[in-house]
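Notebook entry, structure prediction.
Reason for the run: the old model in the group folder had no record of what sequence produced it. Starting over properly, with the input documented here first.
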Amino acid sequence: MDLNTAAGFQWLEDMVQPTSIILGALSIMHPQLYEDGMQGISLLEDWSSANNLGMNRALSLWPTAFTNISVIANRCTPLHR
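New structure, fully documented this time:
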């Protein structure tokens, strides 16, 4: 999914609540992984604010400490590009 679309931004907004639950668990079970992920997102936000405003806009809504999300449906994944 291209996050630089209205549907992409809607997906980001829809993911805030379920991802918050996952992040809460991650922060308890693996606090260092959580902190490292949040630091990575922060560094991406800093870089994108000066270099890529579209990315910065998406990161302002990004609901997770991870820098990407893979979706598996029916035990199949789309080919990587």
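Summary: DSSP finds four helices and no strands in the chain.
The old model has been moved to the deprecated folder.
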